[in-house]
Amino acid sequence: MQDVGPGLINALKERIEQLSLNLERMKLAEYVELLNRPWRLFYINFMSGLARGLGIALGFTVLSAVVLIVLQRLMMLNLPGMSSFIAEIVRLVQLQLKVRGV
Known about the structure:
Elements: H1 6-26, H2 28-35, H3 38-76, H4 80-100
């Protein structure tokens, strides 16, 4: 059997400390605990899905409002090509709403 010197023991200690720090950084214990509690995992995923959906809805609303404002300003400029194009879009939307009975 080989003689284990203090240099080897110190090297092993440093390596174990490094592994311990890496495991703490990975938050492996929290992840394993989360996997052992499926209802908590379900709740977290459900809440993140709600937040994601709300963010998409709000983002689309803001983007649509900006597009409508830009189109409205373009229509007020009374550009010959753009005004007729926008008026046609408005007419088609109104026609579609009448067909659906809204």
